[in-house]
Every structure is written in C-alpha cells, then in structure tokens.
Design goal:
By secondary structure, the chain is of the alpha+beta class. It contains nine helices and nine strands. The chain folds into three domains: 73 residues, Arc Repressor Mutant, subunit A; 28 residues; 137 residues, 2-Layer Sandwich (Endonuclease, Chain A). 51% of the residues lie in helices and 18% in strands. The strands form two sheets. It has a seven-stranded mixed beta sheet with strand order 3-9-8-7-4-5-6, sandwiched between helices. It has a two-stranded antiparallel ribbon with strand order 1-2.
Amino acid sequence: MSDNTLEILLKQLDFSDKEIQIYLTLLQQGELSPQKISKLSNINRSTVYAVCNDLCRLGVIKKNPIKNTSSYLALDPVELQKLYKHDEKNLIIKKAKINSAITELEKIAKDTQYTIPKITFVTEEEINKYLHERAAEWDKEMAKANNIWWGFQDASFVDHYDKWIDWYWQQNNPDIVVQLLSNLTIKEESIKTDYPRRKIKFLNRKHNFDSTIWLIGDFVIIIQTQEKPFYLYEIHEPKLATSMRFMISELWNQEK
C-alpha cells in the first residue's frame, strides 16, 4: 500500500497532516527523539512535542519513560482499534444523552396546549369519491355540534355536485340538520324544498362566496368549484372549527 493511500486512510480516521507525518515517521524509523523527528519530518520542535502528546492521548504512540531524554515510539498498529472503541463509548454516551433529551422534550410537548392540524388535500378527480366516503364519518362528527352542519355555500357547488346532495339525503340521517348561508341561484331555487332538513338562508348578491366552507364537528372543509381545477381541503382542527361555527351561527341568526 502506498504512503498516499495510508495518508488517505488516516485522514478518514481524523488524523491531521502533522499527526500522519509524525506517526508514519515513527512507524518507519522506530524510537526517535523530538529533535530527530523534527529533522526527519521538517516540523519545528515545539510543534513535534505538541503533536506527539496528541498521538499519545490517541494511544498510537508512547513516550519512553526510561530514558533521561524524551523519545517516542509507535505502538503496534493494532492499537488503532482503540480509536473506534473510544468512538463506540462516546456514541453510547451520546445515545444516552439523546434519549434523556427526548424524554424531557416529550414532557414539554405533552404540556403544550396546542395541536397540529391534520390537513387532507383532494384533487378534482377524487372529490366525488371523497364526499361519498367521508359522509358517514362526518355524520358521526356532527354530534359535537348539536347535529347541525353549518357553513357558507358557494352556489356553484350545487351546480356540480347536486347528485351527491341527493344521494346524501337518501341515506336517512334523521338527526342531521344542514344550515348554510348561500346565494340564490336557479339550481338552488329548484331544490330548496326537496330536503326539509337542508336549510338555506340566501344573502344578497354583494356577499357572493368564492368557496364552500363546511363546519362539521371538529372538521373544516373547504371546497373550490368556481373554476377549474376544483379542489377540496379537509382540516381537522377543533378550535378553528368551533370559532368558525360560532361566527356562522351569529350571521345565521341575523339573517331573515
């Protein structure tokens, strides 16, 4: 193996350039004094002392304690194994500290008084399927709001999803009442008496809605059907749903 390859390997073990130079010099030459190391490596003597002390701490060379003058010799290369054993020990300690930190951080997270909303995005191609699949779950959620389905309705929703509306009311949900603020359109006018528990209050034209917003239990559902592509957002956020439900109920009570 060439010296260049050795240097690359030792650098990967976090040896500095001077550490590599002095370590390889001692391996090749045997025991040497700092003066001799300095001469052979072309590194000044004070730096040689400092680097040799670092290599001693790493456990790959040692200082001869017997001689009156300082001298250093390289240990068997197998001593390099101490490096990864040292790293393993540090990793164990670090892992224990990380686990302790996680435990403490989880306590803080549990004490924090907020929740991260769960948001589901549905593309136009999947909206009809999603409306059918979620209907039963939304009915269960309605109990949290006195079985009232509140919302603002963009009348274009009725134009595009009237079949789903008809399907929903055929499912026989006797406790559910829908109360929506909307705008009067020909389509809405034609179905307004078809479903007795689907109550609509029509606002004047200056209050046109660009999107449909439903408040269903702890869910806020936003549907955009004004222009292509349509999309739907379902947001699970109890506090937001409660606040918006209060706002819409206030508006509902104000309208004739």
